[in-house]
Amino acid sequence: DYSTPQPLPDYSLRGSDAPVSRAPVYPRWDGFYFGAQAGRTFGSADFSNGTSSQVSYILAETELQNIVSGWATLPKASSATQSYGGFIGYNVQWGEVITGVELNYNHMAFRSGAADSLGPIQVPGANLPDGSTVLYNVTVASTASVAIHDVLTTRARFGWTYDRLLPYGFVGAAIGRADVARTASVTGTKSTQALPDPVTGFTPAPVVGPLNLPRNPQSQSQDGLITFGYTAGLGVEVGILPNLFLRAEWEFVQFPNISDFRVSMNSVRAAIGLKF
User: Fold this and answer.
1) b/e per residue, 66-104, with b = 16+ CB within 10 A?
2) Phi/psi class of residue 257: alpha, beta or left (left: φ > 0; alpha: ψ in -120 to 50)?
3) Percent of the chain having pLDDT more than 70?
């Protein structure tokens, strides 16, 4: 029966399947991580007051103690060295915000030292009861050196994720292992000038003698001294694989008092890390 129209078969035209888009796999930043690092450390040591306590001990119970022990005998000195080590930490991710803690260790061979003298400098003394005056000529000679072998820092980290990047900053405490050596000596003369004779007007020659300092000189040498300071810095991590990242960072560490020395270090380093 050709009078009734028949439905046409349901044919659909298809082209090639559209490619399935896949979002890039970015690294996860939360959880534990560890890695290895290497770089270069640039440091400076301020020895200006490095032997002040030794000079003060040499001049104890003299009128020169408070004056001469405050002299800045030694200058600053700088040095640079290779450094290498490792790190382990834990991140917590809050959306795009990252917070975490990290333990960071570096071994190095930072060494710096200085040697100098100051004087002779005239230092007026107290007037004696008979009216005569005292004058000192003082010279201070000092040497100092410091070597830092190991630095361990504990950090609080704060970062912001952007695509495969994690720029971050950190602050924390630092512990160092150092060798120190220093020496100090004080030499000079003490002169006493009597008043002119009231009858003749004659002024006798001053009486001059060496300084009598039984504690002179002083020296100290100590290896493996544990010292404490602080750290701060900036860095960026780049995700390579879901669990693998590269890192570049700058770190500042200061030890404010290593046997009266102040040591500051700036380090630049590269690292590779693994998350698990």
Assistant:
1) ebbbebebbeebebebebebbbebebebeeeebebebeb
2) beta
3) 89
Alpha-carbon span 3 to 155, nearest angstrom:
89
Q: Going from the first residue of the chain to its last (276 residues), give the mean pLDDT of each consecutive group of 10, the final group possibly shorter.
A: 55 52 62 97 93 93 90 91 97 93 97 92 83 88 95 97 94 97 94 77 79 92 95 96 94 94 96 94
Q: What is the distance between the alpha carbons of residues 223 and 36, in angstroms, rounded to a whole number?
A: 27
CA-CA-CA-CA torsion sign (218, 223, 228, 233): positive
Please provide residue 56's backbone torsions phi and psi, each rounded to the nearest 5 degrees: -60, -40
Beta-carbon contacts of 148 under 8 Å, excluding residues fewer than 6 positions away, are: 43, 108, 110, 176, 177, 178, 255, 263, 265
Nearest Cα neighbor of 231 from 179, 187, 271, 171 is 171
What percent of the chain has a predicted confidence (pLDDT) above 90?
67
| C-alpha closest to that of 73 among 184, 200, 224 | 184
